[in-house]
Amino acid sequence: MRKKRWIWILISIFTPVILFIGFLQWNGVNSKAEALSKEKATDLVEQRYKGKVTKINQEAEQYTVEMTRNNIRYEIKLRSTGEVLSFSKIDSKEKQNQLQVKTEAEIKKLLLTEFKGEIISFKKHVEKNREVYDVVLKSKEQKSIVKVDALTGEIVFRKTIEFNKPTVKVSEAEASRIALDQVKGKVDDIDLEESGGISYYLVDIDTQDDREATIQIHAITGEVLSVTWDD
């Protein structure tokens, strides 16, 4: 009976001591976690996400980390304990390259690959707090009116006007043959024109005696409308 009583007395004495020691150990672990350094936070992020930390800031009990992985930048927010609060993509190097400043020559080259014709007007002005180029390009078939961001080369407005093509039944090859039947020589140039609702070809022919004739041919009937000679 006395033996059991002593056992209970010993348990009641040592139990608080054991609990107190356990509390100290647990509190020590938590203190270490809360004291996570920038170096350890950097290692944690790089090991967990397999990227490269480029920037880290600490504010109170929170870290804001910028990390690059596969040419993409991410922002990670985590507590000083290592708990991740957020993970988001910022941008990519590819996007950053697109925002590099473009020269006038680069912008003109871009436009000439994008639109038909040649540049006949290229003017810079400020519009809605940014510099833009007003550009007009023209070819035989169309005219393009374009606005381009002067900094990035981004096309912010475009309008293309198609010219009405004259109605024809006679091909250029047929018009050349008709002209050569009229004047012997070599075809130097041929243009399709329209005037007063009539479509016609103007065929320039160089003769062997160094003269030049222009033959006007109706584009529907093939009729020779006129022959003129350059003096």
Automatic annotation (TrEMBL):
Its source organism is Neobacillus kokaensis
Q: Which InterPro entries match?
A: PepSY
Q: What is this protein called?
A: PepSY domain-containing protein
Q: Which Pfam families match?
A: PepSY
Keywords, alphabetical? Membrane, Transmembrane, Transmembrane helix
Q: Which spans are transmembrane here?
A: 7-26
Whether Amino-acid biosynthesis counts among this entry's keywords is no
Tell me yes or no: is Calcium among this UniProt entry's keywords.
no
Q: Per its UniProt record, what Gene3D superfamilies does this chain match?
A: 3.10.450.40
Domain PepSY: start-end pairs: 103-156, 169-227
| Domain of life of the native organism | Bacteria
